[in-house]
Amino acid sequence: MLYIVIPVFNRLAFTRACLESLRRQTCQAFRVIVVDDGSTDGTSARLATGFPEVEVLRSTGGLFWTAAVNLGIRRALILDAHPIMTLNNDTVAPPDFIANMLLWARRQPRALLGPLELDAATDQPVFGGELFSFLTHKTRRLLDILAPEDRTGLHPVTYLPGRGLLVPAEVFRTLGLFDEGRLPHYLADYDFTSQARRAGFPVYVNYATHLLTYPDASGQAKTRRRRSLRGYTQHLFGIQGGGNLLNFSRFAIKNAPILYLPFFLLNGYARRLLGYFLH
């Protein structure tokens, strides 16, 4: 049975829309675990009455993304889940989302799979996977590489985000869970999928499966829209900072080839120190 783990902190409207979209799935062979990390907007109570089919795990706050999804994954593994999907609450799943994900999971039972992401407001593709070079620090977006007629089926990528990430239970039993100790919020998903790829588990973006997202609702997008000295400090040092220097250092040490590491670190620091104001 597929288990879907959704970490939430407030934003009840997003959570309700996400869960409503899961109710409309053509395939209902799944269960949902919501991890409510200290919401103050009545999320847990509203879900208990409005979505009784959803299991809600409550925490007092401070888990952030990684520890929250790990809490849900541990529960799912106890319930003998296979596979497990991590899903953000600011997503909407088209009716065939689960059916398509499970179809391709049966074809590639050892693979980690992620969907093609579409902007919920425009229905235009916003994320279709990336190929990353640790030598040059260059990212090649598949949406820029693939011709329109080739945007179908599975395409190998370097890593995947946690939005709609489907993971065979075997991967968790082999590698353990997301690295909540060193990567409490950002980069834990990229780290985990990179580790899985190097351990021999294929990592694909699935162009046959779409997920609607809200790019402007992310914490990074909000911080960049309100550029300030305080925002810059949060960007570089806050747990939820997209350019957090410590998190980047830990990710680099874990994932960059040793010969590339010094240059990769210097390049990455420069991008984070300057990029906040340039992009």
Automatic annotation (TrEMBL):
Sample GO molecular function, one term: transferase activity
Recorded superkingdom: Bacteria
Any single Pfam family the record assigns to this protein: Glycos_transf_2
InterPro entries found in the cross-reference section: Glyco_trans_2-like (IPR001173), Nucleotide-diphossugar_trans (IPR029044)
Annotated keywords: Transferase
Organism listed in the record: Hymenobacter lapidiphilus
Residue ranges constituting the Glycosyltransferase 2-like domain according to the UniProt record: 4-110
Protein name: Glycosyltransferase family 2 protein
